[in-house]
Amino acid sequence: EAQVTQNPRYLITVTGKKLTVTCSQNMNHEYMSWYRQDPGLGLRQIYYSMNVEVTDKGDVPEGYKVSRKEKRNFPLILESPSPNQTSLYFCASRTNTGAYGYTFGSGTRLTVV
Amino acid sequence: KQEVTQIPAALSVPEGENLVLNCSFTDSAIYNLQWFRQDPGKGLTSLLLIQSSQREQTSGRLNASLDKSSGRSTLYIAASQPGDSATYLCAVSRSNDYKLSFGAGTTVTVRA
Question: Which pLDDT score is estimated for A2?
């Protein structure tokens, strides 16, 4: 089944403790991206990657890092999480042409206390 | 900057009624438009994708239309069921780099 897999689904952590949210897709998509969803603010893009070793900032990149060492994986790294990063996070992928639209993962609910 | 607006923000209907969800966007230079469904706290499920050259797409009880020149799309859900209760998001892909811009969503409740 074609899908984007995120782990973990739920995560509670403390301020300042580094964490990584993993994202993997099995569709051979070149493009991958991370979004966060907050009440009243909707979905906002954090980072995206056009291909292996090519990443760029989205609309709200502060406090996040990403890497793209393999085509299928695009982890999101929070090196020093803060409470304002409590959110619902989504990973998404698509082909570079975008012709078939985006496929989203099931989401990661992150709480930073 | 692309602005995407969805009206109404919330909708409550009795089972069996047809649903009409509206999406408008400010920049007509789009590549495609995608409708998603989101259950509370869950992921986004793609419902329909309309290319900029198309006028509509259909899947089962769902039909989505696109009028690019006026910056509007409408999602129709026929004969609604309680299982259709969810938030429906409209997302527009920009034509030059395919970046997605999302609307805030319409939360639908179908009463049994």
Answer: 87
- Name the percent of chain A lying above pLDDT 90: 88
A chain contacts of residue B96, beta-carbon cutoff 8 Å? none
Read off the DSSP letter of residue B82: G
Convert the pLDDT of each residue in B17-73 to its tens digit: 999 999 999 998 888 999 999 998 889 999 999 999 999 999 999 999 999 999 999
Q: Does A101 touch chain B (CB under 8 A)?
A: yes
d(CA B24, CA B44): 20
Q: How many CA atoms lie within 13 A of A68 on its CB side?
A: 20
Nearest to A86 by CA among A4, A5, A34, A12: A12
| Sign of the Cα pseudo-torsion (A2, A51, B98, A57, in order) | positive
Whether residue A19 contacts residue A11, with contact meaning beta carbons closer than 8 Å, is answered with: yes
Dist CA B15 CA B79 (whole Å): 7
- Of residues A42, A88, A101, nearest to B34 (C-beta): A101
The values of phi and psi at residue B100, to 5°, are -85, 135
| Partner-chain contact A102 B46, CB within 8 Å | yes
Q: With CB atoms and an 8 Å threshold, state whether B98 touches A31.
A: yes
Q: Do A81 and A16 touch, CB atoms closer than 8 A? A: yes
Q: Report the chain B residue with the minimal C-alpha distance to residue A3.
A: B45
Rounded Cα distance, A72 and A26, in Å: 6
